[in-house]
Amino acid sequence: MSNTPSNNPPIRFGIFELVVDSGELRKSGRSVRLRPQAAKVLVLLASRPGQLVTREELRENIWGSETFVDFEHGLNLCIREVRAALDDDADTPRYVETLPKRGYRFIASVVIPEARTGALTPSSTRLPRSEIGRRGFPLRLALGGGLLAALTLLVGFNVSGVRDRLLGKSAVPRIQSLVVLPLTNLSGDPEQDYFADGMTEQLTTILGQISALRVISRTSAMHYKGANKTLPEIARELHADAVLEGSVERSGNHVRITAQLIEAPTDRHLWARSYQRDLRDVLNLQDEVAEAIANEVKIKLTPQERIQLAKARPVNPQAHEADLRGTYELRKHMPAGLYTPGHGESIEKAIKYFQRALSIDPNDPLAYAALADAYYEQSTFLRAPLEVMPKAKAAAARAIELDDTLAEAHAALGYVKLTFDWDWSGAEREFRRALELNPNLPRAHAGYAHYFLVFRRIDEALEQLDYVQKIDPLFPQPHMGPPWLLFNARQYQKAIEAAKLDGDERVLALSLAELGRREEAIAAADRAVRSTQNPIILAEVASGYAMAGKKETARAMLTSIVAQAQERYICGFNVACVYAQLGDKEQAFSWLEKAYLARSD
Fold first, then answer.
1. Are the CB atoms for 140 and 132 separated by under 8 Å?
2. pTM of the model as a whole
3. DSSP 3-state assignment of 490?
4. DSSP string for residues in 516-550
5. E strands within 300-443?
6. Residue 337 above 60 pLDDT?
7. Opening angle at CA 399, ends 398 and 403, nearest 5
8. Domain extents for the chain?
9. In CATH, 316-480 is 3.40.190.10
10. 3-state SS class at 103
C-alpha cells in the first residue's frame, strides 16, 4: 500500500473490519480471503467513503500507468471479488456502488479513526488560496525541492521501475519460475470448488509444457488455497519469480477465466486478461493463456511447444465435468498421501467419475490417463497389483493411442512398465518421453528416480528428486522420496538427515537401527506407529523394531499384519523382511515367493 501510511488503525463498517496496512479483511472477527490487489482496491474505496473514486485514480494509485496491460479486466475482477467478500450485490449495493463509465463509491457508513482522517483526506492538507499567494515562492521552492528529493529516491532505488523507464530501459523482469495459485471460485457455490481446482491443475499442466519455465506443481500450490499470506511471501516459499492468479466462473455451458500475472518480489502487475468461452473450447482457452504468458515474459517457445499449444481438442462439457470431479477426488488427500483415512474411498469415487467421462466421450485421452493414475495409486497399498495394474496399463496405452503427446499418459505407462512389467528399457523410454513433453511433471521425475534406483544409479536418482523438490516441495513420495532412496542405497547417515527433514519416522527408525543406534531407532519406531495404520508401513516399522532388538514387539505386529492378509492384500516383500530380521528364513522365502507371484513392486 504505497499510498497508505503505516501503523494505521483498522477501518470499520458494519460487521467488517479492514486492516489498512496488510489489506486483511475480517468479518465478525474472522479473516475473509482477498487477493492483495483486490484488498488494495477495497482500502482505497473505504478510505474515501461517499466519494467518487475514478477508474483512472484506481489505475494510478494501485497499478501504475505503465505496468499493466488490459487494466479494465483486472479492475473488474477486483471489484467482483470485493463484492463477493462483502456479500454485496452490484444491482442493490450496500457497500460498493458503480457509477457507470466513471468509477466507484463506497456507500456504507464507515468508522475511520481520527488519527488517520487527515492522512487519508487530501483536502485537509491544502492551504487557502490567500496563503498560497502570500507564500507562493517559498512554497514553490519547497515543493520543487521535495519533488526533486522524491525523484532522486525513486530513480536511485528504481521504485516501480521508474529509473528504467526514465533511462529508456526495458522493465520486463527475468522470469524463469512460476506458480499458478488456486483460481478463485466466483460462482458463490462451494460445491463448484472442484471446477476451479480442476481448471487450476489443467492450466498448471499446460504451462508445465514450456521447457524454459519452471512451473510449481499443483500439489504445492493448493497448499496456499485460502492462506492469509502475501504474494511475495508465497513466491518466496516456493522459489517462484512470478505468480499467476485469477478466478473462474461457470454459467451453464460457458466459462469465464480472468488471469493476472504478477512479478512476485515487487507485487507488480505485468499482464491481465479475461477470457470467455464455450466449455467445449476450454482447453484451447488454457492454451491461449499459456502462450500469452510466455510472450509476456519473453520466453521463446520451441516449435514443438507451439504445436502443442495450438492443438487442443474440443471437449464434451459433461465428460469434462466428470473429469474434473474425478481429479478433485483423486487429489483430495494430497499432500498427506496414501496413508490418510478416506483416501481409498476417494480413489474409488475418482475411478467412477473417469469411467463416467469415458461413457460420455470414449475418445477422451485425459480421462484414460487419469484413470491409469487412479488404478496405479491403488496398487500395493490398497489392492493387489495383479488386480489393478493391468487396468492401469490398458488405460495408459489407450490414452497414448488417442494422443501420443500426453505426458501424463507416458508417465503412467512408465510406472506400469517399471513396477509391474519389470520392463526396464520400456520404463525408461516412457519416462524420458513424458519429460520431453512436460519437463515440469513431478510424477515423471519421481518415476525416473525410481528407475535409476533399480540400477543403483544413486546420483542420477537424487538429481531427479532434487528437481521434484524444486517444482513441487509437497509432492507425496512414500515410495520414492530422498529418505527412502538413500536408505535403499545404504547411505544410512544421509538417510537419517533426510528423514529428519521430511519427518519420515519409518526411514529414521530403519536407518538408525542399521547403524546400531538402538534406543534412537526404537523411539523413532514408536513415533511411526502412532502416525499410521497402513499395514505395509507398519511391516516396515516392525523390521526396524526387530533390528533394534525389540523382537517381541516385532512379532506381535507381524501376527496382526499376517491376520489382515486374510482380508486384504498385504505386500509379501514387507512381511518377508520382518521374518528375515526375526531369523525365520523359511517364512521369509515363502513370503518372497508370494511377492514375486503377485508381481509386487
1. no
2. 0.69
3. coil
4. T-HHHHHHHHHHHHHH---HHHHHHHHHHHHHTT-
5. none
6. no
7. 120
8. 11-123, 178-314, 316-480
9. no
10. strand
Radius of gyration of the chain (CA): 29
Measured CA to CA in angstroms, residue 564 lies from 315, 519, 573, 579, 596 at distances of: 44, 29, 15, 16, 19
Distances (CA, A) of 573 to 4, 569, 577, 595: 64, 12, 6, 6
Provide the CATH topology of domain 178-314.
Rossmann fold (3.40.50)
Write the CB contacts of 358 (distance below 8 Å, at least 6 apart in sequence). 319, 364, 367, 368, 371
Predicted confidence at residue 191, as pLDDT, reads 82
CA distance 33 to 450: 40
Choice among 137-151, 275-289, 421-435 with the minimum mean pLDDT: 137-151
Question: Which cell goes with 525?
Answer: 519406531
Confidence of residue 232 (pLDDT cuts 50, 70, 90): confident
Predicted confidence at residue 512, as pLDDT, reads 96
Average pLDDT (529-534) is: 84
> Using one digit for the tens of pLDDT, what is the confidence trace for 81-109?
898 888 888 878 889 999 888 899 998 87
**Tens digit of pLDDT for each residue in 380-414?**
888 999 999 999 999 999 999 999 999 999 999 99
- Bond preceding residue 335 cis, omega within 30 of 0: yes
- C-alpha cell belonging to residue 448: 525416473
Task: Give 11-123's CATH code, choosing from 2.60.40.420, 1.10.10.10, 3.30.70.20, 1.20.1250.10.
Answer: 1.10.10.10
- Could you say which DSSP state residue 383 is in? B
| 3-state secondary structure (DSSP) of residue 345 | helix
Contact 279, 244 (CB under 8 A): no
Using the structure block, give the residue that is written with the C-alpha cell 526495458.
Answer: 170
Find out whether 448 and 471 touch, Cβ atoms under 8 Å. no
19 residue type, one letter: V
